[in-house]
Design goal:
The chain is mainly alpha-helical. Helices cover 78% and strands 0% of the residues. It has helices at residues 5-25, 39-66, 69-100, 109-130, 135-159, 175-217. The chain starts with a helix and ends with a helix.
Length: 218
């Protein structure tokens, strides 16, 4: 592993340990009260969900047109993180919505498109696991669809009626809420980078083992 990995992992652990204290000291939102504090984990996990889908899609494009196996490994790792962070967002969102808006789920545009993006990532992993020969190219094509869905998820709240606030909310947060939010976002982003690097490293080691087996057979 690179030299920066362990210090970054320690920093990430400290940031997550400190985040509950920052969140606890953040003021209550005037209408939602205590339950609004789910926001500080929900939004960063949703952000990592979208970033992971973009990384998967870009790596898939480069693999389709360049045939570089390193890009294929990166896409696979990013797809797994899309599922992970997407699941976090899809779980924390309804927990917040039930208390804030009185419903667990509503089939509005952002919720539906987010669920669809998460299911695309799950389909990618199933295809890679059970698709057989050629599944890498098919899955890469599927990843492009997932990436194309990302901007739609993001801007949907600005153009369709939805229970979600618009994208202008985060930039206009007061300092007392903005500091813990961006701190948590940075912690999630660092976690994403670390997990991505670990997962790619695992695939690199697996590729080397496969190459050794092939060399022994010859």
């Amino acid at each position: 592993m690179p030299k920066w990995f362990m210090p970054a992992a320690a920093t990430c652990g400290l940031m997550f340990a400190a985040s509950p204290f920052l969140i606890a000291n953040a003021p209550y939102e005037s209408t939602m009260g205590l339950v609004q504090k789910i926001f500080y984990y929900h939004m960063p996990s949703a952000g990592m969900f979208l970033i992971a889908a973009v990384v998967c899609g870009v790596a898939s494009v480069r693999y389709l047109f360049g045939g570089d196996p390193r890009q294929d490994r990166l896409a696979w790792a990013a797809a797994e993180l899309t599922v992970l962070f997407g699941a976090l967002a899809l779980v924390t969102g309804p927990l917040w919505a039930r208390k804030a808006w009185g419903v667990w789920w509503q089939w509005d545009v952002r919720l539906t498109s987010s669920l669809m993006g998460w299911m695309v990532a799950v389909a990618y992993l199933l295809l890679r696991r059970y698709g057989g020969p050629g599944s890498d190219k098919l899955a890469a094509g599927l990843a492009l669809f997932g990436m194309a869905n990302v901007p739609f998820i993001y801007i949907s709240v600005n153009y369709w009626r939805t229970i979600h606030p618009t994208t202008t909310v985060v930039p206009t947060l007061p300092v007392s809420m903005g500091v813990p939010f961006w701190f948590c976002f940075a912690a999630f982003l660092l976690l994403f980078v670390l997990l991505l690097r670990l997962r790619v490293r695992l695939e690199e080691q697996r590729a080397r083992v496969d190459a050794l087996y092939l060399s022994l057979d010859q």
